[in-house]
Amino acid sequence: MPPSFVSQVAVQQVVPLLAVNSMDRSLRFYVDGLGFVMKNKWMVDGQLRWCWLEHGNAALMLQEFVPDGTHRRDMAGPVGTGVSLNFICGDALAFYREVKGRGLPTKRPFVGNRMWVTSLKDPDGYDLHFESPTDAPEETEYEG
Fold first, then answer.
1. CA distance 125 to 4
2. What distance in Å separates the CA atoms of residue 91 and residue 130, rounded to the nearest whole number?
3. What are the beta bridge partners of residue 40?
4. Which residues pair with 129 in a beta bridge?
5. pTM above 0.85?
6. SS3 110
7. How far apart are CA 13 and CA 52, in angstroms?
8. Quick one: CA dihedral 121, 124, 127, 129, positive or negative?
9. Backbone conformation region of residue 22, classed left if phi is above 0, alpha if psi is from -120 to 50, else beta
10. Is the dihedral of CA 80, 49, 51, 106 positive or negative?
11. What is the C-alpha radius of gyration for the chain, rounded to an integer number of angstroms?
């Protein structure tokens, strides 16, 4: 790939689109539970079908399955299978304490690859990992 192509295109961000079974359930999880903010949305016949969510500099999109019609979307296999999203943040331990305090089932943080990592699944089975750099020894488990 010629360097001019890379510099001309200048990719800025990747934003995953997650297919979800219930927009309401997913919004409760991402907005109310994890603190994402809705920045854009697409409505069809008064129903929210797609949205753009942000948390700091990270973004993702959610789109609800529609079983028929113009915007039909078929999925082979269970939603979320094999998909992991890794959010690099300033303080994964603070994230863990806040989200755990909101009642979400979040795994106890541990150190892996020089990062504190705390993980949880969204309502559709997507794996979410929130990580922050640390000097703590590998495999240390958070005691808080």
1. 40
2. 9
3. 52
4. 86, 119
5. yes
6. strand
7. 13
8. negative
9. beta
10. negative
11. 17
Q: Express the helix, strand and coil content of the chain in percent, nearest 5 each.
A: 20, 35, 45
What does the DSSP 8-state code read for residue 104? -
The tens digit of pLDDT for each residue in 109-143 reads 999 999 999 999 999 999 999 999 999 999 999 99
Q: Where are the domains of the chain?
A: 15-67+78-133
Say which residue the tokens 């949305």 belong to: 41
Element (H, E) at 45: none
Kindly state the tokens that stand for 133.
Answer: 């750099």
The pLDDT tens digits of the residues spanning 18-70 come to 999 899 999 999 999 999 999 999 998 899 999 999 999 999 999 988 766 66
Confidence of residue 14 (pLDDT cuts 50, 70, 90): very high
The structure tokens listed for 37 are 């903010």
Beta-strand ranges (E) seen in the chain are 17-20, 37-44, 47-55, 58-64, 84-88, 110-112, 115-121, 127-133
Give the CATH superfamily of 15-67+78-133: 2,3-Dihydroxybiphenyl 1,2-Dioxygenase, domain 1 (3.10.180.10)
Burial (Cβ within 10 Å: 0-12, 13-18, ≥19) of residue 116: buried
